[in-house]
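Work Package 3 committed the consortium to producing structural models of liganded targets before the mid-term review. Because experimental data for this complex are still outstanding, the team generated a predictive model from sequence and the ligand definition alone, so that downstream docking and mutagenesis planning could proceed in parallel. The input record is reproduced below exactly as it was submitted to the modelling pipeline, together with the SMILES string for pyridoxal-5'-phosphate.
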Amino acid sequence: MDTVELDKKYVLPTYARADVEFVSGKNARLVDSNGKKYIDFTSGIGVVSVGHANERVNSAICKQLSNITHMSNLYYTAPQALAAQKIVEASGYDMMCFFGNSGAEANEGAIKIARKFGERDGEIKRYKIITLQHSFHGRTITTVKATGQESMHNYFGPFPDGFVYADNIAQVESLLDDHTCAVMIELVQGEGGVQPQNKEEVQSLEKLLKSKNILLIVDEVQTGAYRTGEFLASNVYEITPDIVTLAKGVGGGVPIGVVMTGLKEVFTYGDHGSTFGGNFLSATAACEVIDILSEYKKSGDLEITSIFFNQALEKFYSENKNLFTSKVGIGMMCGLRVKDADTLGKIIQSAKENGVMVLKAGKNTLRFLPPLTITKEEIDEGFKSLNRAISSM
Ligand SMILES: *Cc1c(COP(=O)(O)O)cnc(C)c1O
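The resulting structure, written out as tokens with the ligand in place, is given here.
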């Protein structure tokens, strides 16, 4: 049986997969099972931040695996301690880390910290967490409920109580009450449509929450690891959240999730745990990815790439205003709003046929999350293919 037949027979049908099977890649280039070549403007949904088959990451992983892969969190793991140091130092915050394996799991950790904080701190038990409409926080029962999209709450109940949705940042204040322990936001909503929040609004929310002793959780699962130009979007927005979650881009393709917080004493022995979290494999990958990206940032090359990519995207946008209504996003997390939702599917399909992979976000946004290390040649080639895709529609 070929891959498609095997998948259809043995893998549960939770994904409407595109009809393509990738077999190899190099930086922003991909090859499928027919030998056809593509430019990758998705980086596996913001994961392969340092490009496909990154030699430094692969060699660090291989070296580590030839010694030891896993021994659990019952013992010290040098790469985990190092990864925590690198993440905290890159963030510039006075925080500590907990390691899990995914974004949803990182958010679960954040919610547990906020709930325990709300239980202990103050006279009455505080448990409510305010999240935003069109947010996305994950697929576990709790993070599905934290996600402010009604369409995701159709089944699976009863859900954990205590999640309240604000239409936008400005509405949050009117929803705060004596039971509120935290507000959880994405600074640029990813799945919701590449929607950046307003910086002043976020900064005044931060002040308001501090004055009320309510925690600010920033879900940086998609925005983190230099996607928006700094290590965290929180750095771009010049705020200091109480809790930050990371995943996607941090491991360069190896599954890892991180919850980091300045509340260093809320969790104590036994409060949280993970079998795999931060093991030798994933933590080694994270260490190398962060080293690569922080050098890339320091050298100025990240900014050069981001400017070049955004100029190419702007040009593509201005030449196709019959299809697109606006360009959105920050850094290398970009989108084009498509005039009507039907056209979006056609663009993505035609792009694939013409050798460039792009993503959908929300109902009507064409989303671009290229590897941060994408080259000028790869960017030019990708937009050439996109132009071909549009003309052949
Ligand atoms: C992808 C994503 C998640 C979920 O991450 P998983 O690793 O799929 O569990 C959570 N929050 C945001 C903002 C995301 O983009």
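Reviewers should note the following from the model. The chain has a mean pLDDT of 97. These observations will guide the Year 2 experiments.
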